[in-house]
Amino acid sequence: MKSKTNIVLVHGAWADGSSWGKVIPFLQQKGFTVTAAQIPLTSLADDIVVTRNLLAAQEGPTVLAGHSYAGVVISGAANDAPNVKALVYIAAFGLDEGESIDALSKQGPAPAGAAAVRPPDENGFLWIDQDGFAKAFAADADLVEARIMAAVQKPLSINSFIANPDRQPGNICRRGTWLRRKTR
Asked: Domains in the chain, ordered, with CATH?
């Protein structure tokens, strides 16, 4: 009997696993076993460990999908995960050797809404100003949904933003993960 394909969804910065709430039922109706990660956004290494632990709990072939910042996370988590058969980058970062999201973000003009991201707080976390959240992060959401997302946003550690994946413990984001695996 052929085993079902699992799909593990990894959220990006300023969100949590519930951000996949509209996608999960659709995938489940198609017969997939779906799990959404709850990464802590405290460091790239922490986020990869949580995702790897979730991958280890999957039985059978697994598609690993990430949005935005989670592109870096899934690249690291997929290394040495034999059950991961494909990576899906949804408006996500796929870094090359020596890159960080911070360095990549400085290569061109600032994206729309970037001014709404506040400087790191006293604990080193980045927040999006609630008044600018809809424009910066949730332009396609209705106003009520965007306000809820702003109120429950999960901050991103500045360490996650500036981390060079090649310099993480155990070189967790080896170069070219997205080149060596089937990607979409």
From this structure: 6-180 (3.40.50.1820)
